Amino acid sequence: MVFYRMTMENERAGLYGVHKEIKDLVERSGYEYVWSELVQEEGRHVLRVYIDSLGGINVRDCETVSRRLSRMLDESDPGLPEKYFLQVSSPGVERPLIRISDYERFSGKRAKIRLKNEVSGKKSLTGSILAVKGDSIDFDDDDDGLFNIEFVEILKGNLLFDLPVPQKHVNKGKKKRRQQ
After folding, report:
1. Which pTM does this prediction carry?
2. Do residue 73 and residue 136 come from a single domain?
């Protein structure tokens, strides 16, 4: 049992190094590194790398980073499983909030936050990020108002994409004809 635990710790340490190499390559390529993860889906390993840029990400950006990453991972032996799929993509409009700097950057935006422990009887908050103060976030929940949340208490957070509500067109000046 101890051997398994040690193996897992070694794997985690190796994967940490892989993520750092990926981050460095993405940033050298002129993109923002959002995050990367190695997951198992339907019996296969998938290495996902999320990148962003001020103007957004398109397929060509993902292709460029994917080729560079593939080459780098093939040349070095980063400790990944022998067979895996590499996916490079944008984080999307409901971008995850990974670091406290993400909450600062997206201050004023709508978000959903899932907490490790209940706060005022809630483990999930939906509302607006107001500000970051030190290691905590001021958050205005749609239902329960203001919360000050320690960053370490956040299990998961992401931006919310709200569709704009269409404005009703008011026809001024012309009257509708009555049907007779």
Report:
1. 0.74
2. no
